[in-house]
Structures are given as structure tokens and as C-alpha cells.
Design a protein that fits this description.
By secondary structure, the protein is α/β, with parallel strands linked by helices. It folds into two domains: about 180 residues, UDP-n-acetylglucosamine1-carboxyvinyl-transferase, Chain, CATH 3.65.10; about 90 residues, Dihydrodipicolinate Reductase, domain 2, CATH 3.30.360. Helix content is about 30%, strand content about 25%. Strands 1-2-4-3 form a four-stranded mixed β-sheet, with helices on one face. It has a four-stranded mixed β-sheet with strand order 5-6-8-7, with helices on one face. A four-stranded mixed β-sheet has the order 9-14-16-15. Helix 1 packs parallel to helix 2 and helix 2 runs parallel beside helix 3. The longest helix has 17 residues. The protein is globular.
């Protein structure tokens, strides 16, 4: 995919990003450098995670940026944990396979966020990525969520990715392995989304998983049983939830549930924790899913955040609805608008928020 010149924000020199703006998290540097690689526009991100208890880059940020640099032959400033400023000067995107190891339980899902965004501009028919780290860690999208929720919506836009979890990696040791095969979309732009409100729910699904050492306590089965009860009580349709155990370097469990509608898919996940019963894990995931369902929103708030840059790269204006607007979303919009000549419009509609992305001032649709 080639980004047309009229979609690039008019300006001179390097894009300057203050990483302490808005939500102030690592998402700013991930989105900025991915868009830098995609557009070929150099960027500098300063004050990275300045207000966090441990400011600067973490292991997963360094891994993501190194992966992006390998995709486009970028010249970068020093990529080291704790660095509070990054300069990313990209070259042309090229067809190459990427292998990344966070070295920790750093989120594979967050690394993939950057790689997939930049990767839509890679020439050729396909490329592959192998990422090692955490598949299911706190504060980040699980790889199951990426696979079953995010990739389902991206496929509607003409961007197809196959994801396979080879080995799970729970916090704190990680050790997970994920293989991704990315088909590069043809043409200049992605297909638009038109999801202003929820449509009828036609299926309810999920995946309950745990490390092998928790099999004797039937943790995955207990999560599954509780989730099926909660989903059936509210959605009034049968729910199919798989159970999976496997070897892992750290003991852990998790659950992803999702509801497929006529036009979209909404999801929510939860991770096992010490002193949290399996039934509580399931209850939390179901509760999070139902917040989106009751708001009649077409996408959940986590996908609402992650889909924004792809909306900005669609050939016609895209529309989605979310149950509420988050600082993460607002910050992501701000970063995207620094690189691309687009504008986001947000409007409260009953219990949901409508988000539309269209051409910016002076741009052609």
C-alpha cells in the first residue's frame, strides 16, 4: 500500500512529538515510529513516558522500534531501556522477514501493533514476523485478542494477517513465541469501515487457557464454565468457548470472550492473578464485554483505540462507534494527525460515541 501525497500532512523536515502529551504512554512512540516508517517521514519523540514511575523506553518499545527499523532500514538514535528520546529516520519499506525477542515478558501484542501498521506498506505479496516475549501480560492486548478481534476487522478493510501462537508466555518470565504471516494489501488505500452502531449478535465465542501445571485444578475449565453462564444469561444465544493448556515458563491463565455481530466483532479479556479465582477471571471478562454490548457500540474500546490509524488510511471516510472515549484514543488521534492530513470527529450518541475519520483541511477524499 502506498500512502498518496495528499494524505500526508504538509510540513517541512522532521515531525516533532512530545511524548508526555495526553495519555503520555508508550503508545505515542509506537504509533509515531510506525507511521514514520509507513510514510517515510522522519520523527523525533521526546519526553517518552515522562510521567510514568519508570520513564523512558521499556523492553517491548525497544523491540518494536528495532523491528520497524529492520523493515525500512531506518537510522535511529540509541534504542535502550530508559531512553527518553528517540529519533527515527526511515528509509524505504522493503520485503523482509522480521524476528524480534523482547528478552522479557514484554508484550508481543504491543510489538505487533507497530509492525502491522508499518507493514501494510511493505512491497511484495507477503512477509513474516516471529516475535518472542509475553503473549498474555497485564496492561496490553493479548495475542488471542489480536488474532480473533483486531485481525477480523482489519480483514474487512482488505488487510489480512495470519497469527499462530506457538507457545504462551505469561508474566513475569514470558518465553512466548508467535508467528505472523502478513499479506500486503494491494492499491493505495484500505477499504473503509462503516460501523456506526451495533447490529444483531449472531454468535458468542471464547478461548480459556492456562499453563499445564494448572490443569489439575481445572482452571481453564472453570473459567470456561463461568463465562458460558454469564454470556448465555445476557446474550441469550449458545456460547462456544475452547479450552487450552500448554507448557509455559511462568504459571498463568487467561480468558478471551467475543461476540460476533452481523457487521463486526467485540471482545474482552481477563488474566489470572494470585488470589483471583478462576470464576472471578471469567466474570471480569464477561462484564467488560457486556459494557460494549449494552452501549450498542459496534467495537469495543480497545479495538476503538487500535483501529484509528487504519481508519486514517482508508480510501473513504470510516466510522466506528465505541462505548466511551478514552485518553488513549484521544492521544492516538493527536499523533496520527501529526503525520496524516486527516481529521477525527467524535460525537456522543446515546450510550455510545461515534468516531468518524475523514480528509483533513484541503485534502482530497
Amino acid at each position: 500500500m502506498h500512502v498518496p501525497a495528499h494524505r500526508l500532512r504538509i510540513g517541512e523536515g522532521r515531525v516533532e512529538i512530545d511524548g508526555s502529551q495526553g495519555e503520555g504512554g508508550g503508545q505515542i512512540v509506537r504509533t509515531a515510529c510506525a507511521l514514520s516508517a509507513l510514510t517515510g517521514v522522519s520523527c523525533r519523540v521526546s519526553h517518552i513516558r515522562a510521567r510514568r514511575s519508570r520513564p523512558g523506553l521499556r523492553a517491548q518499545h525497544c523491540a518494536a522500534l528495532k523491528g520497524l527499523a529492520s523493515l525500512c532500514g531506518a537510522q535511529t538514535s540509541r534504542l535502550r531501556v530508559g531512553e527518553t528520546e528517540v529519533i527515527f529516520d526511515p528509509g524505504p519499506l522493503r520485503t523482509t522477514d522480521v524476528e524480534i525477542d523482547t528478552g522479557t515478558a514484554g508484550s508481543i501484542g504491543l510489538v505487533l501493533q507497530s509492525l502491522l501498521l508499518a507493514g501494510i506498506g511493505v512491497p511484495g505479496e507477503s512477509w513474516r514476523a516471529v516475535v518472542r516475549g509475553g503473549t498474555d501480560v497485564p496492561g496490553a492486548p493479548s495475542c488471542d485478542y489480536i488474532q480473533h478481534i483486531k485481525l477480523a476487522l482489519l480483514a474487512k478493510m482488505g488487510y489480512r494477517v495470519s497469527l499462530r501462537i506457538v507457545r504462551r508466555g505469561y508474566f513475569p518470565k514470558g518465553g512466548g513465541i508467535v508467528h505472523a504471516e502478513i499479506e500486503t494489501p494491494g492499491g493505495e488505500m484500505l477499504e473503509p469501515l462503516h460501523l456506526p452502531e451495533a447490529t444483531e449478535t449472531i454468535a458468542s465465542s471464547g478461548l480459556s487457557h492456562a499453563s499445564s501445571e494448572l490443569a489439575e485444578r481445572m482452571v481453564a475449565e472453570r473459567q470456561r464454565k463461568q463465562a458460558i453462564k454469564g454470556l448465555t444469561d445476557f446474550l441469550h444465544i449458545p456460547s462456544k468457548i475452547g479450552v487450552e493448556y500448554g507448557p509455559a515458563d511462568s504459571k498463568g491463565s487467561g480468558l478471551l470472550v467475543w461476540a460476533t455481530t452481523e457487521d463486526s466483532v467485540i471482545g474482552a479479556s481477563s488474566l489470572g492473578q494470585s488470589k483471583r479465582q478462576a470464576e472471578e477471571v471469567a466474570g471480569y471478562a464477561v462484564e467488560r464485554l457486556l459494557k460494549t454490548y449494552h452501549a450498542r457500540a459496534a467495537v469495543d474500546p480497545w479495538l476503538g483505540d487500535q483501529i484509528l490509524p487504519y481508519m486514517a488510511l482508508s480510501r473513504h471516510p470510516s466510522v466506528v462507534s465505541v462505548p466511551f472515549l478514552t485518553r488513549h484514543m484521544q492521544t492516538n488521534m493527536w499523533v496520527i494527525q501529526r503525520f496524516l492530513n486527516v481529521r477525527f470527529y467524535c460525537e456522543q450518541e446515546g450510550q455510545r460515541v461515534r468516531i468518524e475519520c475523514g480528509p483533513g483541511e484541503g485534502a482530497r477524499a
